[in-house]
Amino acid sequence: MALLSVTPIFGSSYDTTRPNDAKAVYLDQEGFPAHGDGVADDTDVLQQALNKVQETTTQGIVFIPSGRYRVSRTVYVWPGIRLIGLGAQRPVFVLARNTPGFQQKPAYMIFFAGGRPKDFKTSGRLQAREQIRCLRMQPGNILFSDEQYRY
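and the corresponding structure tokens:
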């Protein structure tokens, strides 16, 4: 399976060990169990973690351990929420080639939203797109690649 991925310019994470932050949300077996293997779909658990921060504190941090997180539809990052990688290597988000919904532009794996619509479902599906604004990812900030090509 060819994968399209969002990979960092530099491979190491800033935080190599898990900080003890009671207010943070962690993708782990205790809270939000993601696979992080690049094969199993982690979209729902990632969106649920982001929604949890927005619903409980409106702003905060989601810590994501090293791994390859497969995404099958757009993940919405709400205002005031930060994604921070943990571990020796930064996490990588991957998209399988020909994933439905990503064949035409614009198509966003990660969408930095200006607000959370009232009719946004917890599964991550968006009904009111006009309430969201997009922060475009610029070349040099995020590198899109698959197993064979760099875009």
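(Above: one complete record from the training split.) The CA atoms of residues 22 and 61 lie 11 Å apart.
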